[in-house]
Amino acid sequence: MAKPPELTRDNEGAWKLAGSFSSGRYQFSVTPAAERLLRDELGYDEGDIVPWNCFRALVYAGDASLPSATDSPVETGDDLARPNGDVEMSDAEARALAEHLQSKRFDERQREALSTHVADTKLDPLLAVETLDRTEDWVAETTESLVREGEASDERLQSESDADFGGEKSASTASDRRSATTVLHVSDSHLKPGGESDVDGVHGLDGFEKAVDVAVGEAVDAVVHTGNLFSSATPSDEVNAACRERLERLQRRDIPFFVVAGRNEAGDTDALDALTETAGVRRLGTTPTAIDESVALYGIDHRQDVGAGNGGIHLEDPEERCLKLCCVHQAVSPPYSEYGADVEAYELAIEHIDGWVDAFLCGGTDRAVEWEGDDLCVYYTGTTDAARVRNDEDEPLVSLFTVRGESFERETIPLDGYDASARERERARRERENGRERENGDERDGYPGREMQSREATNPDVRPLTEATGSLATMLDDAGTPDFEDRSTAELADMYALFSDVKGQIETLRTEVRDVLSSRVGEGQEVTGSFGSVSGRRRTRKSLKDSETVLTELARHGVSREDVVTERVDGTKVEDAIEERNLDIDESRLYDISENDYVRRDDIDRDALRRRFEE
User: Fold this and answer.
1) Are both 189 and 306 inside the same structural domain?
2) 254: how many CB neighbours lie within 10 A of its CB?
3) Fewer CB in 10 Å around end: N or C, the chain?
């Protein structure tokens, strides 16, 4: 009679699964992912019996194998001997195993074997085998991607390497995605004691758990939470425990979870600090946290006086050039109204922070809003708590940042109805279509008239904008304060569609006008039109060169490595060393320095605007 599968260890301490065939009992090696599943998620220890249905599923998936065998996973799984009196999986074990299998790829034979195997188990309602990722699709996508990469020209590669930081949108390939760095932005979960209808009796936990589902499903490199994780600075033990349990899912998958204190926690961060000791949570600060050497994360806890003082927040430079994202919990304008904001975006970036960043990832609002300006972006992802979403057109979201080289893309992902497998299939389909479009585009590169067409395309067509604004003006009928409650649902639908359309067109035109205006208005120059005034500004970016260059130059002036290095070269210590010794060092030998001009709106005369409109 066959013995049940058992978790064991060999003489070198490696974890094994002992399983039986009709011919005898053998030791199966397990993959690191299977070891994490069995040990960390399911809590098995040496000598524990593993349910046979779980064991066989791992064999079919290739997670448990005989080191010297030549049989395929399916052949090995088919030959296993089922023990009498087998232990059944618990519901929790079935959920964890199903989640594990959903993260893997299977060939056609594996899918057929697994489909038959799960039919009579607790996995059946949890695992739709037909939606599992196909190895054949992955091979095809990878091959197609490698072919495209091999055909890419040196000019294209150079243009990518010279791209400026920003929200650059570009078609992605399967291999691009695997080599990219991904950061999931989550915020304002407001976890607090709830009622019987709330998951585990914790209000807001459902949305937070869904955000964790997205992080796991997208296999992100990091999660950042920009404040108000809890509804109060002193959450109850039940709320703490429920939050910690969800965070441990990320910890088991080596997905770091970074936080800043929001308005709710800023007065007392003990609860956040406790999570760093038990759930793998990390606090962000002014020292950069590197993610795959592509992204540097910073964090600034909520401050009542963030708008006071100049250069009061010093951000240390990262060791390598990378995208710099600063997580804050403040009302930043734009996208906030300037009347209700804590601070203006460029004011925060230039005057209050010593050290330039490429984007602010913000918390403090329940709605997902964004603003993309000159070399600086501000993103709010909104709340994960559906009960706090007040407008019918809004829904709980998280934001996925995908960084490739020196560009990034941002995608908002609704929490309700998230399906990792469906997203991956859709992503693969788009990548194949984009590949075909790029191939067709390459064929047209040599056509005569292409240069003329591209020049003509730079002149924007404003007719759709004037048509939309004209329609809106007619619908609003010169009403100073329109009462939308009196409008029909159909009229409101028209208005909302037009407002959304106008918003996007105006932002595009604003950017183009800004670029032309910046080339004409110099630093310190003020220009006043009929009703609007702007002024020219110049900002200087200064970041330390690579460590070797900085240390070599400082050593020439008698500054030792120990004077300026903690874990890395400390920008503040470099400045202190230069000031204390009154050293005369050309800044360009220590820093990469760049300047650029921009314009800032100073004022708008609404009375003059009204008179102009009435004319």
Assistant:
1) yes
2) 9
3) C
Give the domain extent around 602: 526-614
Taking phi first (over 0 means left), then psi (-120 to 50 degrees means alpha), and beta for anything else, what does residue 364 get? left
Structural domain contains residue 146:
no
Q: Is residue 157 part of a domain?
A: no
Last residue of a domain, one of 116, 131, 146: 131
Q: Give the mean model confidence (pLDDT) for residues 43-65.
A: 90
Note the pTM of the prediction, 2 decimals. Answer: 0.50
* Alpha-carbon gap, residue 169 to 149, rounded angstroms: 18
Q: Are strands 369-372 and 359-362 parallel, antiparallel or unpaired?
A: unpaired
192 shares its domain with 108: no
What are the CA-CA distances from residue 217 to residues 178, 256, 422, 539 (Å)? 14, 15, 11, 40
| pLDDT-wise least confident of 55-69, 180-194, 285-299 | 55-69
Cross-strand partners of 243 = none
Provide the 10 A C-beta neighbour count for residue 133.
18
Three-state SS at 504: helix
Phi and psi, residue 370, nearest 5° = -150, 160
H or E stretch covering 468 = helix 463-476
Q: SS3 for 280?
A: coil
Same domain, 413 and 321: yes
Question: For residue 329, which of 298, 354, 308, 356 has the smallest C-alpha distance?
Answer: 298
Lookup: tokens for 424: 């991956």
Same domain for 419 and 462? no
Q: What is the rounded CA–CA span in Å between residue 555 and residue 590?
A: 12
229 vs 217: CA distance, rounded Å: 21
> Distance between CA atoms of 249 and 215, rounded to whole angstroms?
10
Query: Tokens representing 12?
Result: 């070198």
Give the CATH number for residue 195. Answer: 3.60.21.10
At position 260, the amino acid (one-letter code) is V
Measured CA to CA, the distance from residue 363 to residue 367 in angstroms comes to 10
Stretch 113-134: mean pLDDT = 80
- What stretches of 7-61 show up as alpha helix (H) in DSSP? 32-35, 52-60
How far apart, in whole angstroms, are the C-alpha atoms of residue 367 and residue 383?
7
Phi, psi (deg, nearest 5) at residue 389: -80, 115
pLDDT number for residue 466: 66
How many residues belong to the chain? Answer: 615
| Spatial CA neighbour of 344 closest among 317, 363, 371 | 371
Give the chain's domain count: 4
> What was the pLDDT predicted at 320?
79
